[in-house]
Structures are given as C-alpha cells and as structure tokens.
Give the backbone structure.
Amino acid sequence: MSRFVPEHSAYARFGVDATVFSPKFIRLEDTMEQRAGRRWTVVSLAVAVGVLVAATALFVVLYVQKQNDIGQLAERIETTERSIADRTARLGTVKSTVEELDAERSRLTSTNTELRACTTATKDSIAAAQRADKTAFDAAMAKAFINCRR
C-alpha cells in the first residue's frame, strides 16, 4: 500500500489497492528531479520578485527625484515671474520718465529756436549800430522786440 493511504481507510478495509483509485498527486513520489524542478521554479520566481522589487524601488527613487526637480523648477519659475513683474513695473516708470524727458526736450528745442531768432536780431542790431545805419538798426530792433519777448 501507498504510504499516503492510512491502514484504517475504506480502501484498506475492503482490500482494494488504494493506488488505483487515488488521485495522481497522492501516487506520485517526490523524486530528486521533481524537487530540483520545484526548487528551480521557486528560485526563478524569487529572482523575478526580487527584480520587480528592485525596479519598484528604483522607480520610487526616480519619482521622488523628479518631484524634487519639479518643485525646484516651480520655485525658479515663480522667481522669474516676480522678476518679470518687477522689471515690467520698472519699464513703465522708465517709459513715463522718457515721455517726460521727451516733452522737456521739445520745450527746450522750441525755446532754443526762439532764443536763436532773438540772438540773430540782436546781432543784426549791434552790427547796424556799429555801422551807424539808422534804418537797419530800427528794422533789427523791431525784429528783436518781436523775437525777444522775455
């Protein structure tokens, strides 16, 4: 009788060979080859699980690193946006200053034109006075009074 079938079983009582009716896994004896095959399967599955665990750990590390990189990049973007906002405000101030200076330049240009006309009339009057030309002097003084309103 097989060692897997106890002596007090129904098979033993009626004198029936238990190996005929028992399932295959009970009749099979563990051989060294079968144990080696099982060991190889267990070892290969253990290696596969180890590789999967290592890959998972690697991906977790990479994920954490990328999250840190994303955080640093977000801080850098925020800093850049603040810098751009500050520079935009400064640019607005500079533009208004440029507009003020441009208006001042226009005013000074017109004042310069007026003063040059006055200067020309004054020079003409001095030249006429030095020549003792009364008519040229009167005309130059009339221009001086018109051009030199200040």
